Amino acid sequence: MAEPIPIIGGTGALGWALAMRWARVGQAVVIGSRDPGRAEEAAGRVREVAPEAQVEGLVNAEAARRGPVVFLTVPFRNQSENLTNLREVLEPGQLLVDCTVPLAAAVSGRATRSLGVWQGSAAQQAQEMAPEGVPVVSALHTVSAPVLGDPEAELAEDVLVCGDRRADKARAARLIEAIPGLRAVNAGPLEMSRIVEQLTPLLISVNIRYKTHAGVRLTGIGEADHWA
Amino acid sequence: MAEPIPIIGGTGALGWALAMRWARVGQAVVIGSRDPGRAEEAAGRVREVAPEAQVEGLVNAEAARRGPVVFLTVPFRNQSENLTNLREVLEPGQLLVDCTVPLAAAVSGRATRSLGVWQGSAAQQAQEMAPEGVPVVSALHTVSAPVLGDPEAELAEDVLVCGDRRADKARAARLIEAIPGLRAVNAGPLEMSRIVEQLTPLLISVNIRYKTHAGVRLTGIGEADHWA
């Protein structure tokens, strides 16, 4: 866990929450934003909650160079633009963890509905746009940003991870499981992200009805460390 | 729970498992099949596990007349044919609970992939084909038939229920929750079945990797009886 984790779009609710959670367990993070001032402001908010935090705020392109596993936590509306920018920056050997969900809210539709993505899923779009040698896995679609972003909230839920190579998924899983209460579950190849990305609008539908922030836990999976 | 529950396609793995579970808690069931002999044979297998069972096996059309809430548990390949047959039989005031999942396996594809259904989901196809006055809800997509069908297996999982009227969902939920260990969660309108039906191929993908029979449990939902 020595190398920092760059979070592209780290000033958003999910990205900031991840940064804060990692900072609290001693993991270095770099918050990326289009605006370096906003990135530094978000880093400051992490330091308020985690005074020992190793966190800095940088413009996205610089942030993305700071660590081997790069998390992309931007709204679907901005995913393509961010991927275009990252194309110039990411290098072979880096891993991109895409957290994008194609909610219909991106085009003023409902957050309980999703858009069709030509490649099949936002993650597959990311894979198509990522530079040669940079694999993509997808994860963290079902973790509620408000819950993750509340330092007092205890987590006890699963993160479904999709990707074409187990080793890539394991690399992302290690970082995800560094956050207490999150278990990373291997959901299959990247194409399964077509389904996993749909869990967000489903949970939003449940949240509306139960006035809650629901998450997912799969039953029937043992507690052994299956990424070992 | 006085009136029997007709299960169309009740000789299949999911339908039989439901029949067996309900029979064990004293709920009367009627197993429907195209072949009355196979229906009676399946009813006999329920009696072996639940000697006090109130269970009979009938041809589908007769079974469907025996109770107000009819469960449809057939493979996607046969859903349309069954709905055509049920059109002549179901009467206004009955409720149809559709459990169909459009797995690509229906057309010799993979069980980790799904087919696009013109209406958006198998449940919406069912609603289009159901007679006037017979609402459709969908449920039970994520419950593993082998686990449900093992009388010794303890359940502790959720069933996501989709439907356009809360009262219809509550009616189905009451029956589902009569099975110990199943909690029915309101997942929203019937169109959300587009997502919920996709959970089956997702779980199959997980099952392959973990050699298990996974189920779903949502976090963040209190234990209060929310159907009351």
How are the SSEs placed, and which strands pair?
The structure is a homodimer of 228-residue chains.
Chain A: E1 5-8, H1 13-24, E2 29-33, H2 36-49, E3 55-59, H3 60-63, E4 69-72, H4 76-87, E5 95-98, H5 122-129, E6 136-138, H6 145-148, E7 157-162, H7 166-176, E8 182-188, H8 193-196, H9 199-210, E9 215-219
Parallel strand pairs in A: 1-2, 1-4, 2-3, 4-5, 5-6, 7-8
Describe this structure in words.
Chain A is an alpha/beta fold and 228 residues long. Chain A contains nine helices and nine strands. In chain A, the strands form two sheets. In chain A, strands 3-2-1-4-5-6 form a six-stranded parallel sheet, sandwiched between helices. A two-stranded parallel sheet of chain A has the order 7-8. In chain A, β7, α7 (166-176) and β8 form a beta-alpha-beta unit. The interface between A and B is large, with 40 and 40 residues.
Percent helix range of chain A? 25-40%
Name the beta content range of chain A. 15-25%
Write down the overall geometry of chain A: globular
Which segments of chain A are poorly predicted (pLDDT under 50) over 5 or more consecutive residues?
Answer: none
Number of strands of chain A: 9
Largest sheet of chain A: 6 strands, parallel
Radius of gyration of chain A (Å): 16 Å
**Overall mean pLDDT score of chain A?**
97
For the biggest β-sheet of chain A, the strand order reads 3-2-1-4-5-6
H/E order of the elements of chain A? EHEHEHEHEHEHEHEHHE
Structural class of chain A: alpha/beta
How many H/I helical runs of chain A?
A: 9
Biggest interface and residues each: A-B, 40 and 40 residues
The oligomerization state is homodimer
State the end-to-end distance of chain A: 16 Å
